[in-house]
Amino acid sequence: MMHFVPQTYLKHFSTKQIKGKKTDYFIHALPMPFSSGSKIKSINIRNICVEKDIYKLTGSNEDKRQYVENMYNLYTKMDMTGCMNY
User: Fold this and answer.
1) C-alpha–C-alpha distance, residues 27 and 52, integer Å
2) 3-class DSSP state for residue 80?
3) pTM
4) What is the DSSP letter of 8?
5) 3-class DSSP state of 11
6) DSSP letter string over 29-79?
7) Domain assignments of the chain as residue spans, ordered by start
8) For residue 10, what is the enclosing H or E element?
9) Which has the closest alpha carbon to 1: 48, 41, 40?
10) What is the pLDDT along the chain (86 residues), one digit of tens a residue?
């Protein structure tokens, strides 16, 4: 799971709840999609602004899923010694 809004940022808008040695942070928000009967809920910041496999590439085979990684691998192996000659 990857947060697209960092938890450290969300923490500044939250309320702290301590139970024993465990500290959790909660914000108050309306559930989405919003409807006229929706009620404000207290939500742990661990469970909001988070998406599974946010940076995962999709593809029909491993080569397509690893395209960026393979390109980066080729780039790091290139001889760049002449690039900085002025």
Assistant:
1) 21
2) coil
3) 0.56
4) H
5) helix
6) E--SS--TT---EEEEGGGSSEETTTTPPP-SSHHHHTHHHHHHHHHHHS-
7) 2-77
8) helix 7-11
9) 48
10) 677 888 888 999 999 999 999 999 999 988 878 788 889 999 999 988 888 777 777 777 877 778 877 888 887 777 666 666 65
